[in-house]
Backbone:
């Protein structure tokens, strides 16, 4: 309880200094028009919906396949510090930041979109696959002859045991890839996000509603249309679709210029050495890094507490013994919709109504992550619900007196696990115009000041690693059950 009290108190202290202002105009007329449009989805207005849907799937399938292959190759060596450091660096940078950097180097085409998703996923896959290796029964490995190399142990003693959980996690990561594939459309790649942004800018909320409905159905049915036997076919079709995307060619040597010149701080390129570098870093720290970092941390902490509140109050909605069958179906549907929509997309929707303050980001992060944790807790609650006697408590009495005490430790573990994820997503919200660190990264990239953006990306990576370390320390100290790939796959 002390950890919970500390986090809640910190969020309450930060509330008065957080920018939670609205746009300064009456949001209700706009909200009314949006709801009216959402109530009458206009599928006919979206002439290229099928093409955008197919490209959204294609980017996700190709990226997950590439990331899974790289993670599969690195997993046996994850305990070696160079591999672990590489994986941490890859996954610490959000997919959309990778996309913005890669577009500068190789243009706004299919390779940039696929690599933007595959690079962080490679680091994530390596970590999760390595954890699954550690959790596997060690006896088959010990039965192999002495001196057997790590790859042989991996392929012959571990892989048969972990193939099913690996497949389950890979399917979950494909669902994440679908969400990320939509998000990269907001920066110009031809996925559903690009069309959604276009229709919102035109005020065509009926067409936007049609896109959102198709997207939620696509995510909700992913376990029906993505079967292991069909995976090679989906991958082949994805490669064919992506190969047909026309992209403007980049200048010769753009990649080498990015790596050898653009990423080097300007004072060092000009030969000024430390005498020029220190003032350059000081100016950027005072005007961009500290303001962006301050807003990022404020939004992260408030969103984390909101996530916990939504998860804590919401997980009982999916338990039939608490809300009944009808209530369970309604609760399950609400959580499916909220966890299917990416935080970035939810923040974009709130931004249209509330304006560019921290409030849209906090609401989006709290709703999405709260729905994920509520879903996981609801599954466990349904499993531990005792066989009820005639005089046993039901409804919210069951939730308060039976389920909450049993699952409170699990609730804390999941919230702490999502903490670092919320931080990364908060930083990304800056691309929407919200004053987090991503706002200054996006501005630097728009001005082709790659060196400044790289410095700020390093700051985000270090901060993410620090929060992840604190989270793991708190979970170990409180002896909470670790969050594994199986938990993620259950989403």
Residues:
């Amino acid at each position: 309880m002390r950890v919970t009290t500390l986090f809640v108190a910190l969020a309450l202290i930060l509330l008065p200094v957080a920018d939670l202002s609205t746009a300064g105009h009456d949001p209700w007329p706009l909200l009314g028009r949006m709801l009216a449009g959402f109530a009458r989805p206009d599928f006919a207005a979206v002439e290229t919906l099928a093409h955008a849907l197919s490209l959204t799937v294609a980017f996700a399938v190709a990226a997950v396949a590439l990331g899974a292959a790289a993670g599969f190759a690195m997993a046996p060596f994850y305990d070696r510090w160079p591999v672990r450091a590489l994986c941490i660096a890859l996954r610490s940078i959000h997919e959309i930041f990778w996309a913005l950097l890669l577009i500068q180097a190789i243009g706004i085409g299919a390779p940039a979109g696929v690599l933007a998703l595959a690079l962080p996923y490679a680091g994530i896959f390596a970590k999760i696959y390595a954890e699954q290796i550690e959790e596997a029964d060690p006896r088959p490995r010990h039965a192999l002859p002495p001196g057997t190399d790590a790859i042989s142990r991996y392929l012959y003693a571990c892989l048969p045991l972990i193939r099913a959980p690996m497949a389950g996690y890979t399917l979950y990561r494909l669902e994440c890839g679908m969400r990320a594939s939509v998000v990269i459309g907001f920066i110009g790649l031809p996925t559903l996000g690009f069309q959604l942004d276009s229709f919102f800018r035109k005020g065509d909320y009926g067409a936007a509603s049609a896109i959102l409905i198709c997207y939620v159905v696509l995510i909700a049915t992913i376990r029906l249309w993505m079967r292991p036997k069909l995976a090679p076919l989906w991958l082949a079709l994805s490669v064919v679709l992506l190969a047909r995307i026309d992209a403007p060619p980049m200048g010769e040597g753009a990649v080498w210029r990015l790596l050898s010149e653009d990423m080097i701080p300007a004072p060092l390129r000009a030969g000024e050495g430390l005498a020029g570098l220190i003032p350059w870093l000081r100016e950027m720290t005072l005007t961009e890094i500290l303001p962006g970092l301050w807003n990022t941390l404020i939004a992260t902490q408030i969103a984390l507490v909101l996530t916990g509140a939504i998860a804590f109050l919401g997980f009982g909605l999916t338990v039939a013994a608490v809300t009944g069958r009808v209530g369970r179906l309604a609760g399950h549907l609400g959580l499916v919709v909220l966890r299917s929509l990416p935080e970035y997309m939810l923040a974009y929707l709130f931004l249209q109504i509330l304006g560019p303050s921290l409030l849209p980001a906090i609401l989006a992060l709290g709703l999405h992550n709260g729905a994920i944790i509520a879903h996981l807790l609801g599954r466990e609650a349904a499993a531990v619900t005792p066989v009820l006697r005639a005089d046993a408590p039901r409804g919210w009495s069951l939730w308060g007196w039976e389920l909450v005490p049993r699952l409170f430790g699990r609730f804390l573990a999941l919230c702490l696990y999502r903490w670092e994820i919320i931080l990364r997503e908060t930083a990304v919200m800056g691309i929407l115009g919200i004053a987090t660190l991503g706002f200054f990264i996006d501005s630097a990239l728009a001005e082709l000041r790659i060196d400044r953006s790289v410095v700020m990306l390093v700051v985000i990576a270090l901060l993410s690693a620090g929060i992840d370390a604190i989270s793991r320390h708190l979970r170990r100290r409180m002896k909470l059950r670790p969050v594994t790939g199986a938990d993620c796959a259950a989403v």
